[in-house]
Amino acid sequence: MKATNQRILDAATRIFARDGVSGATTREIARVAKVNEVTLFRHFTNKEELLRQVVLQYSKNFENVFADASFETQAELNRTVQTFVLSYSKMLLKKEEFIRTFFAEMKRHQTLCRKLFVESSQSVRAKFIIYLQTAQKNRLIRSDLDVSTAADALTGMLLIGVMRRPLTKSVYTYERYVKTCLELFLKGIEP
User: For the domain that residue 27 is a member of, what is the CATH number?
Assistant: First the structure.
């Protein structure tokens, strides 16, 4: 059952990336997943729910970074943030086509895309912010810093890096960009 579910999600990711929200059909997703549409609908109630699950599975890949993360020392804080940044940027790069299509569709499906974007990032964002707030209480982060905005700034920089990658890859590598974002963030939050 899990294997079928994952096959459908993988197929949906490819079809949504290729055809967009409007162009993707459950029939095509089922064909690519090598299941019939009835099976697809047993796993996912409709196309919107399928898209929702595709988006949600991305955040599940790295939200556990903060589960047992320590913030006793600056080195531990830096290591945890680096682990998060590397896993987040890896996911963005892996799902680049889907992300591009998703952003292109935002204007046409604004309410749906906004809802999915907020819902998919809510859990990991909250965990990141709580982690930063705790580190701030431990005096590892500037006391005057709004950590919510700082967290959004970091993830925003990483997201834009993927979107700009085709334009900048002849100037610098994506890895260099990610490293620079990480360095800027860590220097900017220092007490």
Answer: 1.10.10.60
